[in-house]
Amino acid sequence: MAKKFTNHNVIIFLALMIIGLTINSLFLGNHYSLDAYFVEKNQDEMMINIQSSLGRPLIVFFGILFKFLNIKVMEHQVLLMIIAQVFLSLSALLVVTKILPDNREKKSAIIILICASLLITNNIFNIELLSHIYLAVFSSLAVLLNVLAARIVSEKQTLTKYLLSCVLVTCSLCLYQGWGALFLPLVLVFYLLEKNYSIIILLKRIVIFTSIYLFACIINLIYLKVIHPHFFGNIEHRAENNINIISNIITIIKIQKNIWLYHDYLLPKYFFMISVIVLILISISIIIKNKLKLTFNLLISAFIVMLICILPFMPHLITATVWAVPRTIPVISALPGFLILISLIFIQDSSKTFNNNMHSITLLVSVIIFMRIIVSTTQIESDQIATNKIDEEMATLIVNTIQVKEKELNTTVTKLSFIQDKNPKYMYKDIKGFGDLNVRAMVIDWTAKILISNISNKAYQITEFDKDIYDDYFKDKNWDFFSPDQIIIKDNVAYIAMF
Length: 499
Known about the structure:
Oligomer: single chain
Largest sheet: 4 strands, mixed
């Protein structure tokens, strides 16, 4: 029986891996976010100094290790993507196998669980982390550590397991804080599997689980505010001390409309909100039909949903700048997956006829949501590949134009200076993205400089823009496409207007 169980898990893991790699197949090739261009030229700065300033000491450890071994992460994108997917698939497997035993003979339950687990670990917001390929492995490992911590502490309540879970959650935050909000709601979902739970036991568990999460947060905050400044000196701008919590709360409230209605423009309008509403109605109908601890089950389910909606924003309350983009709040996008898990757990206690009906409805809704996520993910990945290609073409045009003007003026350009035109466009036409996702490299000065230097094979320096040049050639100008008029050369400096 144990052997059959093991083989069963291997098959599920392979299915999760194949699905995950298929969904993200376009990212198995080289792809670049804005930060990835910087990492390619300044790996030590990004993975040691900057990651330390963001409170991620475990990434710093790997950054130092890579430096010692002379490993260039951007040269191993395929391997990084595969390793990241292994971590995500193992995370999904731990979720599936925790809830699967009572449903082992029902194929629809396995399909629902696979959809739900992947909607948690491979949700649409996580695509931005995968686009930041140098972060993908670390953020995916953070997911695995949180899921593993939830599994361990939900199996048997012992001091040793509490401590181990605390260590795992702390390590996850020291890798990537964005996934830290996963632990608490997930361990409460696992708690729903217990048959003889009560409000007293639940409150006790909530206190313990919350203490684990808060302890991990405090350790991470100590590193960010005390240890990093002591050893590195510099503080990342979002971690500075000029924090206005009230202003941050107002900002967080304002961005809720964008998240719920448009899901940061990564899904069709209203799709995320409608999916959540439908799944909530399914969960409520199942709980009401069961009539078993009706109020208790409704309250704990509502509490889990509330945690998923609130916890991802908690770190943003103590930052100087609220930067709530997909990669910093991925747990919000996992909400449909959580609701599907809750529905499936409560279906187990239903009558047979109702059980079969709700299995069918939940299966249909799960597959529809999952398929829409696949379509959007593929489009986003395709758009990033297209953005990278167009950026390279734009950089090539600029290099060729500079070379022509160098010959005409009999000079050699050693410095570049950039300025945006009156109405710069941060994404190419028909490209889908949000935040840093699929932003044009050729509209940001430091990424434009890197691309131009790569293509020309010259180490250009960036200098300040000459005010007279701006007033004479670029003031109030607006371009929708590349033109040689966007480049003016004076002495050894190429002044470039980015449209």
